[in-house]
Amino acid sequence: MADLHSINDAINKRAGRKLLPSILVSLTLLTLIFGTINLEPKLFLLLILIAIMLGVRELTHAYRAGGIELPDLPIMLIASVILVASWFGGTEGLAVSTGLSIPILMFFLLMISQKDFIKRSTSAVFAVFYLAVLGGFILLVANHPDGGKRILALVILIACNDTFAYFAGVLFGKHKMAPTISPKKSWEGLVGGLIASLIGGALVFQNAFETQWYVGCAVGVMTVITATCGDLIESAIKRDLAIKDMSNLLPGHGGIMDRLDSALFTAPAVWFAFELINRYL
Question: Counting runs of H as helices and runs of E as strands, what totals does the chain give?
């Protein structure tokens, strides 16, 4: 038993986090995602709303740690409007709600205080765009007759990249990709995620959507790029605000933002890929 504990401690030290709680949290999240989208799509909308609201709360608290004072509730309200409009209004709802909501938010912040207005307003707009606008594309992917399969494709692509990039990096990572932003991210990890995403993309698009395997490979490559960018940008935000994690809400993962970062950047690309497939293939 002591040997098992020693092995587990060594794995956790090498991985940089506790793997068992991380796996349990991941399985719980997957159950919620696929349970809601298949049982009742509006429950999936509610799930995403809750996740984005938690993300807004984490980001505004992180802002405060970095000396940027912003109220939670107005940003949550604006984000909710954009997400609901995206679900019921599609791309038009997303575009119009964003165009109307952001000026209102900026004016509201101006009425609260004129001090550091540029810093406060740009930080608030960034939060809305980062979480609500990009998050709206998750809902655009889901709100479709094939929404369950499309979310499955999104999850598989992200999981292939994140999981295999993580393990390849832990096992083989020697050459740092961006040491000043994310010291644990390596080129070996990127290659591991790329190989897995190529295979996962080919399989899911060929079997679930009856497209050619190379279409899935192309989407897989795109996913590696977007998911990696999302992860690096979230790491850059934390470094800029001088915090280690957004929160400790999810054991073994950190905050909800640590789970959303890849999805927020990948969902628009996957939505665009489906649009191209529907029009030209």
Answer: 10, 2
- Close Cβ partners of 77 (under 8 Å, ≥ 6 residues apart): none
* φ, ψ dihedrals at 226, nearest 5°: -70, -40
What confidence category does residue 145 fall into, taking pLDDT thresholds of 50, 70 and 90? very high
Q: Give dist(CA 273, CA 130) in Å, integer.
A: 20
Residue 190 CA to residue 176 CA, distance in Å, equals: 10
Q: What does the domain layout of the chain look like in residue ranges?
A: 40-143, 146-281
CB atoms within 10 A of CB 174: 8
Residue-wise pLDDT tens digits, 204-225: 999 999 999 999 999 999 999 9
pLDDT of residue 4: 42
Q: Give me the residues paired with residue 178 across strands.
A: 182
HSE (side-chain half, CA atoms, 13 Å) at 101: 27
pTM of the model: 0.91
Angle between helices 187-208 and 147-172 in degrees, nearest 10: 150
Side chain identity, residue 208: A
Residues 6+ apart with CB under 8 A from 4: none
With CA atoms as reference, report the closest residue to 50 among 254, 260, 233, 229. 260
The one-letter code for the residue type at 98 is: T
d(CA 90, CA 96): 10
Tokens of 146: 């094939």
Residue in the structure block whose two tokens are 């609901």:
84
Residue reference for tokens 């979480």: 131
